[in-house]
Design a protein that fits this description.
Elements: H1 3-6, H2 8-31, H3 36-57
Helix pairs in contact: 2-3
Length: 66
């Protein structure tokens, strides 16, 4: 998909937002020791960090022919 190669500014902005939100949720959830809600926040933070990684790798994917 050429969309992410052509729109690098959008990709970098989304990566920055998801990275900062992910780190914030991890730290905020970590401070809620012993609460189930803290674990949920940390899991959402990890998912956001994985989304950041996927956005970073998207332009380097080879197009698969089916």
């Amino acid at each position: 998909m050429k969309f992410w190669k052509e729109h690098t500014t959008l990709r970098v902005a989304l990566m920055l937002v998801t990275f900062i939100a992910g780190i914030f949720l991890l730290v905020y959830g970590w401070k809620q020791t012993g609460k189930l809600g803290g674990l949920g926040l940390m899991l959402v933070g990890v998912v956001l960090l994985l989304v950041t990684l996927a956005l970073y790798n998207k332009p380097f994917e080879d197009p698969k022919k089916r």
